[in-house]
Specification:
Number of strands: 12
CATH class: Alpha Beta
Bound molecules: ligand PBG
Shape: globular
Largest sheet: 10 strands, mixed
Distance between the termini: 33 Å
Length: about 325
């Protein structure tokens, strides 16, 4: 005798009864690019459907997100001014700080901010550069300033993406000292030195001007090391940990799910978005169905939260 597994696949009624993984709008976070200036809505060339908005036009995208039923957004800033010390990253009237205040004024959406220096430094690295090398400990001071300034502007959660050692501890201590004990931290814990960030760097003008990010972001070949990163971040006070990118790292998500009990986020990054957009533009893929399959696979791997550029036009009819 052989097993007839097809018995449970005969029609949609029975298939839905035995389905193991469900994707919902509650799982998704939509990244929003905010650019300094006025009356701007610029499409990112390598990311069709994704725009950079100036603060005065943010309403358009916030409305769209609300209409799609998405409850959380992640804000990325694109400043008009860069220097060695990323001054515009922690300015009270910086682009993210202005954006957060505006969003909080017009919406109840949950606002997470990306905390990093790369868009704000002249060299495009995620930290303070000393003699050609990113100085870990000095960078921590600046990251803490950035996180605090976002929270003061009204951010609900901060998400440090720099990959310096000890940043979660430093940010947690700073927020606690200032009385922000209830602001959670989502740590980009296992963030790989990935070429899938290419379109994002075009969108945010944040490509490193010399060298690469391999001295702070992880080697794509490593998974045990990712567990050390995650463990460190949880010990230092991270409330949510992240694996990034998502698709080439589904095994990392699964290992993390099996070993740790905190919520896990996965970042379905820019390059993963652009690949699908390009292929569907050519007529080679059915975009909606492929998106549903991709997001479901990330959830099946063990992610609780998915950060994705597909969130704004996500629909449960895809299935
Ligand atoms: C900033 C940052 C990056 C991304 C999120 N935060 C780029 C990088 O590390 O170079 C990538 C997001 C994406 O590709 O969608 N440190």
């Amino acid at each position: 005798m052989f097993k007839r597994t097809r018995r449970l696949r005969q029609n949609e009624n029975i298939r839905s009864l035995v389905r193991e993984t469900f994707l919902t709008k509650n799982d998704l976070i939509y990244p929003v690019f905010v650019v300094d200036g006025k009356n701007k809505k610029e499409e990112v060339p390598s990311m069709p459907g994704v725009y950079r908005y100036s603060v005065d036009r943010l309403e358009e995208i916030i409305e769209e997100v609300e209409k799609a039923g998405i409850k959380g957004i992640m804000v990325f800033g694109i400043p008009s001014f860069k220097d060695e010390y990323a001054t515009s990253a922690y300015a009270e009237d910086g682009v993210v700080q202005n954006a957060v205040r505006k969003i909080k004024e017009i919406s109840k959406v949950y606002v997470i901010t990306d905390v990093c220096l790369c868009q704000y430094t002249v060299h495009g690295h995620c930290g303070i550069v000393k003699e050609g090398f990113v100085d870990n400990d000095e960078t921590l001071e600046y990251l803490a300033k950035v996180a605090l300034s976002h929270v003061k502007a009204g951010a609900d959660m901060v998400a440090p993406s720099d990959m310096m050692d000890g940043r979660i501890k430093k940010i947690r201590m700073t927020l606690d000292e200032q009385g922000y004990v209830n602001i959670p931290i989502m740590a980009y814990s296992a963030k790989y030195a990935s070429s899938f960030y290419g379109p994002f760097r075009e969108a945010a003008f944040s490509a490193p001007q010399f060298g690469d990010r391999k001295t702070y972001q992880m080697d794509p070949a490593n998974i045990r090391e990712a567990m050390i990163e995650i463990e460190n971040d949880i010990e230092e006070g991270a409330d949510i940990v992240m694996v990034k990118p998502a698709l080439s790292y589904l095994d990392v998500i699964r290992w993390a799910r099996d070993r740790f009990d905190v919520p896990i986020a996965a970042y379905n990054v820019s390059g993963e978005y652009s690949m699908v957009k390009a292929a569907s533009k050519m007529g080679w893929l059915d975009e909606k169905k492929v998106v549903y399959e991709i997001l479901t696979s990330i959830k099946r791997a063990g992610a609780d939260i998915i950060i994705t550029y597909f969130a704004s036009d996500f629909s449960l009819d895809y299935i």
